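F.,

This is the one I mentioned.
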């Protein structure tokens, strides 16, 4: 069957898959075509993140269903506790206001 994946630039990729294929298999196809590593890829379908280990049929993704959306996994982290604290309103040059953390 054909499925559709909307990529980061808004273009829709057409992929060949079976209902029993996992999201991980789809990521491999996208990796080959878009040169984005499997680890960086995340997908959303019906407003929900979909996980690698489940087959397409688990999410109701069928032949020519609405495209699911591809998003990049952005590296993140935590805020260092010592950086948390009260902030003061400060006046910047050119009459712009900003915040300065203590």
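My design for it:
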């Amino acid at each position: 069957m054909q499925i559709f994946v909307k990529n980061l630039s808004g273009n829709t990729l057409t992929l060949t898959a079976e209902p029993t294929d996992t999201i991980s298999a789809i990521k491999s196809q996208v990796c080959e075509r878009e040169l984005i590593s499997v680890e960086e890829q995340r997908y959303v379908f019906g407003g929900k993140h979909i996980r690698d280990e489940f087959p397409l049929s688990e999410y109701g993704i069928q032949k020519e269903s609405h495209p699911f959306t591809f998003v990049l996994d952005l590296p993140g982290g935590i805020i260092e506790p010592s950086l948390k604290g009260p902030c003061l309103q400060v006046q910047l040059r050119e009459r712009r206001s900003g915040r300065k953390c203590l």
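Residues 86 and 102 are 6 Å apart (CA to CA).

Talk soon.
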